[in-house]
Amino acid sequence: MAYFLWTLCLSFLLLAFGSRAAAPRKPIDVPFGRNYIPTWAFDHIKYFNGGSEIQLILDKYTGTGFQSKGSYLFGHFSMHIKMVPGDSAGTVTAFYLSSQNSEHDEIDFEFLGNRTGQPYILQTNVFSGGKGDREQRIYLWFDPTTEYHTYSILWNLYQIVFFVDDVPIRVFKNCKDLGVRFPFNQPMKLYSSLWNADDWATRGGLEKTDWSKAPFIASYKGFHIDGCEASVNANFCETQGKRWWDQKEFQDLDAAQYQNLGWVRQKYTIYNYCTDRARFPTVAPECQRDHDI
User: Fold this and answer.
1) pTM, full prediction
2) How far is CA 115 from the centre of its chain?
3) How many angstroms separate the Cα of 82 from the Cα of each of 20, 158, 200?
4) 20 domain residue, yes or no
5) Rounded distance, CA 27 to CA 29, Å?
6) Mean pLDDT of 122-150
7) Which residues are part of the catalytic machinery?
8) Are the C-beta atoms of 185 and 74 separated by less than 8 Å?
9) Domain residue limits at 260
10) In what order do the strands lie in the sheet with 71-82?
């Protein structure tokens, strides 16, 4: 019922604000092997329907993961994921972009498992020039273990937007004018993994992985990448300004999208580094522009 009411509210907002919402283009679902390769524990990845769907498996011996074949400077990246069901405490399912050097850039989705009956926590983070500490955590407005949901990153020279089923849950603006570094000149690969992190993932490490519930399985499909492919040493995109995600309507969220972002902030945010005065007595300069305070 809650999800139905939210859908009605979302439809009303879209009607109220017209068709100005710059929703990303619909992802194109392709087989796993088109864009990705396994990175470790190959025998812990299962393939179905000609590689259009895969499962990552975590047991007491190892987890597993995969990475994109190419490196990218800007673009739209999307994955349909069904999280580990049941008692998933201690497990982390990650989907993220990361560069390859020490002062690395990184854009993270991390899904933190929990004891049966407790909600998943979605943690996002942005690293630029090796600096992170920009964690935000939300509960989702649905059970992410029962069916596939779409998790997407839109990254251009102006902003990074995290989407869940086309709802923006976080925006990180380019605030170079405020002295904040922004990922713009280091190509990044996409990665995903399922691994054991029971030293921190669930209630700060108090809840340990119950290996009697293993194997833990996360399911994937979609594997959409629409980005500016570059060598790992390239520091600019040759098609800058020419791709759909570079255009003016994607340089900011519009009013309807900011309404949806505010809804997530008010209803589902459980941690925001911008409001954590114990860790950060001084508010980070990007927080106000990102609509985080």
Assistant:
1) 0.91
2) 22
3) 31, 30, 22
4) no
5) 6
6) 97
7) 106, 110
8) no
9) 32-290
10) 45-48, 53-58, 216-230, 71-82, 149-155, 159-164, 167-173
